[in-house]
Every structure is written in structure tokens, then in C-alpha cells.
Specification:
The structure is a homodimer of 641-residue chains. Chain A is of the alpha/beta class and 641 residues long. Helices cover 38% and strands 20% of the residues of chain A.
């Protein structure tokens, strides 16, 4: 059972419950070779905090004394490991050494018999150099074997591996077929050669296409990915589980993992690492160490690099800043920078999952930042939902690295009095003055020295927008006539523009009906509440300049705009609880507006389109049908509150 | 006494000897408030490895019991600290609280009397908002006080603080006047407000202008810089010492330092830190801790963040990859990205110190990478030293993220047979085929998906070069005539082109005189040795594709090209040692070619321009006159070898 507790990009922070034990994701499972005890499993659990590991059932089965012991006392006792144990099936051995002398049924049964928590089908490893036909045929075999395994699994959980080489359509199709089977985890397989050859941009395509097909209620495991340098990016793309055999393998070869690569002890110029394993040692000491102690120390070092990075990934995910971390990490190698640049091609897919708002500042790290979903969403929304107050524009250059108008306040006023709409050119593209205190604009920080790509694109997008929005002309700030006399209400313009941006034009029209009164903060002077015809319909959050929807506002929208706009429809059984202010859980949702995004304001309705609550979306519309557990909508207030 | 042992960019890894104790630089000195013992100095030394610290002599002097104790037992015993102790003078207090009730002579004398290792003048803190006149006047006062301090210092070392607010000419001038005084360390002062206000691009200007004036035999201390996020960039710019009061101050305010910023405990979403202080604690536990234990834990955490980053800076410096680390770190905040972009304006100054070659791959991290000195140097050298074999060019697009021709080998051959010179468009600009195995071209890795800025600039630079180099036209690979019959020797073209690039055209002509024989590696087929008229004049290194100069080659250059080209002239006393193969030490150098760069091949001559050795430059020409210690040229072979 997998539950999402926090999200960012396509990343999920989750709780994966396996036989009563909880694995908090994103998590990495160290690979334990049952024949080589580099670091005892008990220490992995207690000292390093790894609550799950992987070992290889194929090796155990082919080693008589291990096989007998595992069958006799069970895998957990044999390894002396109290956490979750996943076993691999021999597939990777077939990739490395060719065919294995084993049948799928045998290895699935064996995994079951030794008490594995999560077993693996004997899937076929699709090599990146395979033809499409060869790949498609082998996927059929894997799917057949997976079906058999599902029938046999009993109380064991089962990995249903997504294969498909580098063919995105095959990956998506394989994942979709796996999604409908009774598997428990979606590993993405066959990617080790891509990582070994630094083909990270293709890895991005493989992960993103696989993600399109999977069942979102199951964790996604990127099989064989364990280098700290890839963890942030892979988590951002929605991978939940990782594993590392490298920490021990590299240690035996005297290779040390760092966040920026793996280095041979013999090539290193200095140690200068302050992880708990290395602290106090010099490079010379380490080199002179007796082999076993050296292997042990390097394996520990490698694990500390992993735990260190995983802690950072979790922290950034919690803070909603995982994009920033992934962008930083992708500068560690040009092949990773390629991956980041490739990710922009999947911007629209990313946008479906990316939360509508988050706390704190947003940092631009380079032109690649424009590949974040929030940039695409902003442009789509101002294209579809922005109504210019006048048809003449004044174009202001971006100021001081902020797409933000405060330094221009006087000029804005002059422009508006003369009947012009002020628009600031920013890395987001055009920023109409009415929107400049809203997320993501006001929260974003840019360097004041621009780069050519962002600079050029900012201008291009602005002129594209001016034309599409029907502006009849644009002038520079110097050209604003001095003697404007037009009256305007800047706050009302802002209040309406933000409502249109957030809820669409028809909904905003319903909310701003009749006489409008804006209640301002005494401290900041900013809009706090919108009262329409005496009804309090909206409140504006100080943090992100976006609205929370009140029940009165929800009713207006339901009356004026046909379903499914902004609706999440719940089963009748749930109505009493939700209207009482309880959260909406996924399994009680009948249907919902497919255009909703995480953190978006929603209207919870019953089957007859009566509004029963307002709240914020937590899951995506496409996740909800899959989820067996967890909150779909965080309800703010119910109709009975 | 300060000695440079390794270098990269303008960074120096050094040994600073103070009263018989060695401080290895770059180093950070934690600030110890003598009244608040957050972490005992003995622990700073033993547990955290800080071999030097700073404390405040002004506070000690103004606290009767501390003053009496310090005068009685000395500062080291009072603090129980065996390392190097630097003291500040009260200047920062004057910045914080206005005038201090103290004379320069008094505080200098007091520092001397309590046994400070490195004392500080009572300089005047130049605020960033000061006018230029005000700043210039206060610098005069600081210079006068510094002169007095130098006369009084005795066996104490003294800090001569570079001031000058944000005025680059004043900074440079102040540093130059300090350089001629008998001070021991060059702190750069008055920068804390810039850092507090995230004005990092101005900090870059301040550091770079100060560096232009200083005496290079002294360490440079960036006063008040202690946040891990700034250490890589500041070290790259040639700062050797740092200090941090923040680790303890922030701890008292419950603020935790991380590589990407400082976060308030109350704002944090999760702890997820695996430093030795935090390991095993949750955010909730930490918040609930009793105040003193909490302060202590956070102070330790902050110190671990600093030591962790400093270790990384040292590792990258050792590996010659500090540019990469600084570029990564500058993505942590848009204001730091601004600083990185500003650094490009100082590219020419940087280029004077940047080593001519280094081991290992060079990673491109974004368009900012083109601001590295090696890009400028490459363009200057092909402009001045490249001779086109023919006057018609074929322009090849960059391939697979490498400015490297191997995939084009057949097309290159076809082009050359048809009388064309193949040129690859790369992020470096134009790469003539003859140069493509040479540092930095062959060692560089780029993403295969280009960004607009680098893409546009690559083309612009290529067309600029074609015109300047006298090419009469350029075609695309598809336009190469099939039936070329021109004969050419690709290796000889390469051998000559690299020699011109490295030593200049006249020197290369002298080296490639008469009959040329190229000795190739049996294994790789690449050029190894150049024999000219039977004399072995050059060897080509496999690592970077550049030459080492043999004595026979050196003699040819001395005969053909007038001094000072490539010369380092040593005193007569040193000649017997150097001609015997010993390294050249700075204090024995009489003069040298001002165009030499670190790691460049040089010819050591006596006063009569007789070559006595060949070797590689280690210091820069402008450092040599200042250095009292350390190797200037690493000699490969002497004339008597």
C-alpha cells in the first residue's frame, strides 16, 4: 500500500507499507550480495538507516548452502535483517552473462518460499541496442511471465518490470499493461546500460514514457540507479525507489562515489572528504590500508554519499524546491545537463503533476529553468484567461532580476491614466501589472545580468502575447503621454485578473458580480477579501497572492459554470463527512475535472452537482482512480461548517 | 611566510607559516567570542581541525577580567588553543555601533602584549553607501595607521586591511599601497554589508580589484566571509583565508547554515541532514531541545557544513576543477549566478593566473562556462598564432557535445584532398582540425543539446575567425568536391599547428627547421616526438596533446627568437644548480617573459641568454618578484643533465 504525503514536480514523498513495515520514499535499497558480506545487513539497517534492501534470489538458489539455509530459516533470519527485503530474479544476470538456467515459475516460487517481501518476475532485459521488433516480442514474454507470477504470489508482493529498451511507445504500452495487472511495484528495467554509457537524456525519455503508463498507486523503482548524482533528477521525474550495488562493487575496485562522479583511489589527488567513514583519514593512509579494511571503508563512504544526497533530496522535496536541486545536480556532468535539457520536451507531462503553488522563493538557475512546468502553465493561462483592461500596452524591461513592478509604480500609474496597460518583460514572458504579486511571478528571483536565451525568449513571448491578446500597439515607458485622465481601480483590476487566471473567465465573472468591495490588509495594504453583492466569495493569501475559494464563491461558480469545471464529485456516502469539513479520500471520488492540478482550489460536489465543500486538490485527476489510500482533496470548509 | 603549492584559476593552495605553525590554505578561521564559549577553542582545534581562529582584542581589552588574564597568561593559554590566533581590532564594532573609544596604537600594542599571532590595525570600515571622496579620505587614515602598526608590530604578524567601498580604483590603489608596507596578510575589508545584501556581483568587483594591487606573497583574507555557499567562488578569485562568526551567531538565533542558504529552524520543513551533529535527530527533537544544547548542536552543524564545503573546495582545487565547483555553487542563488556572470568581465585578469593545462576532463556547466579564462586564451592564441594550411574552409557542426573531430575523419580527409581546411564549430569557437587533440579542446565535454547563447556565439566567433585568418570562403561538408588530389601530411600539420599555438610562430619555425621526422606511439598512433634535422626538439604529452620542450628545442628558440620570449632569467649563483636539473626558486629569478602563464613550457637562461634548463612555469611573472619562498619553475632537464 503506497500513500503520497508530499509532492513536487512529479516527485512523491510517500509511505510504502510492506507487511506492516513502512518504507519512507524516496528510498534507496542497498544491494546485498548474499555471498559477499561487505557491510552486514544489520548495520545497513541500524547504522545507516536503510529500512529496505535488495538481495539476489538467483544467487541464493544456485548456492546450495544458501538455498538450504534460506528455505530453512527464511531470508530475514539468514541475513539478520529486520527491514523489508526485495529480491531480484536473475534477469540482470541474464543481461550480464546471457541466458540463465531457470524458469520464471521456479524463481517466483523460490522467492515466495524463502519469505521475500517483494519478489521479482524473471523479466527479459531489453537492451538499448535491440530493434523495436525484438523489444516488442520480449515484452510479450515478460508480460506473460508477470501474469503467471501474479497468480502465484500469495502474500508476497511482486515487481512487474517495465521494459521497452529506448522505445517510448513500447515503454508506455508495457507500463499500461502492467498497470492493469496485480503487481505491487513498477520497476523500470533495462536502464543500467544507459547510465553506464552516460546516456542520461535517453534515460529521461525512458522514465517519462514509462510514467505515462503506470498505476500511480504503486511506487516506481528505477532499477539499478544508485549513484547520488542521479537521485534528485530521478526523484523529480517521479521515481520512488532506487538501489545501489555500486557502493560495494566500486569499493572492491577502490572507487569512491561522490556527488559529482566516481573516482578511482589511484587517480585521486586528495581525499578531503569529511563523511563519517573518511573523517580523519588522508589519501595516503587510505591507499596503504589492508585490502579488507579499505573495501569496508570505501563501501561505507559510498553509502554515506548516498544517504547524504537522499537526505538533501528529501529536504528539497519537503520545501517544494526539488526543481532547484535537480537543476544544480545536472550541472555536475554535461551528460546530465543534456538530461535536464531533454526534460523540457516533457514539460507538458510534468505540468499535469506540478503543484499550482508552493511556499518560498523560486530561484532561476539558468535558461534550463524555463523548462519547469510553472513557466508553461503561466503562458497557457495568460493566453486563455487574461483579459486586457485596455488595448494599448506599455512595455517595461525587467528590473533588478525580479519580474516585479514595484520600482515602476509611478510609471504604471502614468500609463494607466493615459489608457495603457503596463506589461513587464520577464523570463516568464509578459507580466501584466495586474498579475505581478501572484505566484509564481512575485516569488521568483533572477540574476540581473541576463543570458541570451532567456532574454531573447522573454521578448519573443511578450510580442507573441501582445498580438494574441489583441493589443493594438505598444509603446516604451518614455513614450507614455503625461496628461492621462483615465480613472481606474488598480486593486480591482488585480482582483479580477487573478481570479480569471486561477478559475477561468466565466467563473471569475460569476465571482465578481454586482457590487464589489475589496477588504485590504491594514498592515500591507494588499487585498485580503473579496465581497461581491455582500457575499464573501474569495480570500487572497498573503504568501502566494492567490485566492482561497469560500463556500459562497463555490456556489456562484457551480451556478454559473457547467460541470465538471473545478468539481470533484464524491460518493453519497462521503457527503455527510465532507460537508462537515473532513478531507476527501481518493477512494470516495466518483469523478473530477481533468484540468485540475495539485494545490488547486476545488469545489467538492455530490452526485447532483450540489457544492458540499471547498478545498485544495492534493492528488492529480489521473492519480485518483488508482489510489487505494490517501487524501485526494484537503477540505477547507464544508457546507455544514 | 606564505608558499603556493597548487593552483587553479586564481586560487592558491598554500602553506602559511605563522610562528612555526602551518596553516594550510584555503582555510577558514572560526570567530570565537571571548565572552561566549559556544564551542571551546580546544575542540575547534582537535575535533573540527581548525588550525587557526579569530577572536576580538577589542572585547578582551574592554572586559577587565579578560584583559588582566590575557595580559597575565597570554591569549593562547587563556583560550586553551594551541593553533594560530588572529585578533580583530574593533573595526567591525565601529561599523556596527559607530566610533570606538580606542586609539590604533593602543589596540595594536595590546594585541602584541597578549601574544596574538596575527594582529589587526584599527582600520576604517568603508561602507558601500559612502561617496568616493569620503572613502578615499578614510583610506588615507587607514594607511597611516597601518604604517604605525608596522613599526610597532615586533614579532607579531599584522593584517593590513584593503578598504575602498565599492570603488574598484580605490580598492586597487589601497591594495597597492598596502603591498609596499611591511604587513603580513591582506584582508579585504568592508564587504560584510555586500554579502548581507546579496550584492555578490559587486563583491566580485571588490575582490578582483583588490587582487590587482596586492603583494602576492601574502595570503588574502576575505574578512567576514564564512558562508559555505561563497567559499568556492571566493577561493577561485584568489582568497586564501575566511572567517565565520555566523556559525555561532546563527546558532544562537536558531538558524542553520546549508550549502544553499541559511534557514530558520522554525521555517524548516524537515531536518534531513546527516552531518555528525544532526545525524539521528529529527526536526521535532531539535526544536524541543533545551536552549543551550540546541545552540551547541546548531553551531556544530554549521561548522560541519563549513568543513564539508572546505574539503570539497580543496579537492576540486587539487584536481584543477575549481571552476566547475564554483559554477555549480553559483547556481544556489540568483545573486550568486549574477556574481558568476560578472566574473566574465574579469576574464582577462583571470587569464593571467590560470594554468595552461590540467589533467582530466573539462565540464561545461552552462553558457557561463565560456567566461572561463581558457576560452579567452584559446581565441587569442588562434587569432595570433594560427596559420591556415589552405585559404578555403569547410565548416563542420559540433558533434555529440565534443569539439572533436574523430567522427568526421573521412570527411576531413576528403576536404583536405580537395584543398580545404576543416574547421569545427564548437563552444570554444572555431576548432581547426589540426588542433583538435590538444588541451583544452579534446578534454572538454559539452551537452549535445546546445543553448542559444553558446550556439550563437560559437557561430559568430567562427565567422569572425575565418575572416581574420584570411580564409577566402567556406563551404559545408556536403559541398566538398569528391575528386580532390592534394597530398597532405595530417600529422605534420598537427605537429606544426600545436607548436605555433604553444610557442608562437617564429619559435615553431625554428623548431620545425629542415628535415622533420615524427615518432608515433605504437599503441595509439599519435605523435610522440618531433625530430628536426636529427635533433629531438619536442615531445608531445599523451594527456593534453601539448608539447614538452627539449633542451635541443630550447636552444633553437633562443637562437631564433629574441629575449624575453619564453625566458626565465636566473642569477648566476643559481645557474650551476639549475643546469644540474634543480628547480628554480622565486628568489633567484632576475626577470622573465611577462607573457608566460602557469604550467607553460619555459627556457631558463643565465644573464647572457644562454639556455641552462627547460621546465614548466609554476608561478606567474607578476608573482615572482613578491615571493620570498617557493618554486617558480619546475625544471625538467638542465643543460648538464
Amino acid at each position: 500500500m503506497f500513500e503520497i504525503v508530499k509532492r513536487d514536480g512529479m516527485a512523491r514523498m510517500g509511505k510504502f507499507e510492506v507487511h506492516g513495515k513502512i518504507v519512507e520514499t524516496p528510498a534507496l535499497l542497498p544491494v546485498v550480495n548474499p555471498k559477499i558480506n561487505t557491510i552486514p545487513p544489520r548495520e545497513l539497517y541500524e547504522k545507516f538507516g536503510f529500512k529496505a534492501l535488495i538481495t539476489n534470489s538467483y544467487i541464493i538458489r544456485n548456492t546450495p548452502e544458501l538455498r538450504d539455509k534460506a528455505l530453512e530459516v527464511g531470508l530475514h533470519e539468514m541475513l539478520d535483517y529486520p527491514g523489508v527485503i526485495m529480491t531480484d530474479s536473475g534477469t540482470f544476470q541474464s543481461h550480464m552473462y546471457g541466458e540463465v538456467d531457470l524458469k520464471n515459475e521456479e524463481i517466483v516460487q523460490f522467492q515466495h518460499d524463502i519469505g521475500t517481501d517483494i519478489g521479482t518476475v524473471l523479466d527479459i532485459f531489453t537492451e538499448p541496442f535491440w530493434t523495436k521488433e525484438q523489444t516488442a516480442e520480449s515484452i510479450e514474454v515478460t508480460l506473460g511471465r508477470t501474469k503467471v507470477a501474479c497468480d502465484m504470489k500469495g502474500d508476497m508482493l511482486i515487481n512487474g518490470v517495465v521494459q521497452g529498451s529506448i522505445y517510448q511507445d513500447l515503454r508506455e504500452d508495457c507500463a499500461r499493461k502492467m498497470a492493469s495487472m496485480d503487481i505491487d511495484v513498477h520497476p523500470i528495467g533495462g536502464v543500467v546500460p544507459l547510465m553506464e554509457q552516460y546516456r542520461y537524456s535517453e534515460l529521461v525519455d525512458v522514465v517519462m514514457s514509462s510514467k505515462r503508463g503506470i498505476n500511480h498507486s504503486r511506487p516506481v523503482h528505477l532499477f539499478g540507479a544508485g549513484h547520488p548524482m542521479i537521485l534528485a533528477l530521478a526523484t523529480l521525474m517521479g521515481c520512488d525507489l532506487f538501489d545501489s550495488a555500486g557502493y560495494a562493487k566500486f569499493a572492491r575496485d577502490e572507487r569512491m562515489m561522490f556527488i559529482d562522479g566516481t573516482f578511482r583511489l589511484s587517480d585521486m589527488q586528495s581525499l578531503d572528504c569529511d563523511c563519517p567513514a573518511c573523517r580523519g583519514h588522508t589519501l595516503q593512509e587510505l591507499r596503504r590500508m589492508e585490502k579488507k579494511a579499505k573495501t569496508r571503508l570505501i563501501a561505507e563512504h559510498n553509502l554515506y554519499q548516498i544517504t547524504h544526497e537522499l537526505a538533501l533530496v528529501r529536504r528539497y522535496l519537503q520545501e517544494g524546491r526539488l526543481w532547484e536541486l535537480a537543476e544544480l545536480r545536472c550541472r555536475a556532468h554535461p551528460a546530465l545537463l543534456d538530461a535536464l535539457r531533454r526534460l523540457k520536451e516533457h514539460q507538458a507531462q510534468m505540468e499535469l503533476s506540478d503543484p499550482i503553488s508552493r511556499d518560498g522563493a523560486i530561484f532561476y538557475t539558468g535558461p534550463e529553468s524555463r523548462g519547469r512546468p510553472t513557466y508553461l502553465r503561466y503562458l497557457q493561462r495568460i493566453r486563455d484567461r487574461y483579459v486586457p483592461p485596455t488595448d494599448k500596452a506599455v512595455i517595461f524591461p525587467e528590473c533588478q532580476g525580479k519580474p516585479y513592478s514595484r520600482p515602476y509604480a509611478e510609471d504604471f500609474d502614468k500609463a494607466r491614466r493615459a489608457g495603457f496597460t503596463p506589461i513587464v518583460v520577464s523570463p516568464f514572458g509578459p507580466v501584466p501589472a495586474e498579475l505581478d504579486e501572484m505566484y509564481p511571478l512575485a516569488q521568483s528571483l533572477f540574476p540581473s545580468i541576463p543570458d541570451m536565451e532567456t532574454d531573447t525568449e522573454s521578448e519573443r513571448l511578450t510580442f507573441q502575447f501582445l498580438s494574441a491578446a489583441g493589443f493594438k500597439g505598444a509603446i516604451t515607458p518614455e513614450q507614455i503621454p503625461e496628461d492621462g485622465t483615465m480613472e481606474y481601480d488598480a486593486d480591482l483590476l488585480r482582483a479580477k485578473a487573478v481570479a480569471r487566471y486561477q478559475f477561468g473567465i466565466p467563473a471569475a465573472d460569476a465571482l465578481f458580480r454586482g457590487e464589489i468591495q475589496l477588504v485590504r490588509s491594514k498592515k500591507t495594504g494588499k487585498i485580503r477579501n473579496v465581497i461581491s453583492d455582500g457575499e464573501h466569495v474569495l480570500s487572497m493569501r498573503a504568501g502566494d497572492g492567490l485566492y482561497t475559494l469560500r463556500m459562497e464563491g463555490a456556489k456562484r461558480i457551480v451556478e454559473a459554470v457547467p460541470a465538471p469545471h473545478m468539481r470533484v464529485v464524491v460518493m453519497d456516502d462521503a457527503v455527510p463527512f465532507v460537508s462537515d469539513g473532513r478531507n476527501v479520500f481518493a477512494q470516495f471520488v466518483l469523478s473530477c475535472d481533468q484540468n485540475l492540478r495539485p494545490m488547486e482550489e476545488v469545489i467538492v460536489t455530490d452526485g447532483k452537482d450540489n457544492p458540499v465543500a471547498t478545498g485544495r486538490m492534493f492528488l492529480t485527476p489521473f492519480e485518483i482512480p488508482f489510489m487505494k489510500k490517501g487524501m485526494a482533496v484537503k477540505v477547507r470548509s464544508g457546507s455544514d461548517d
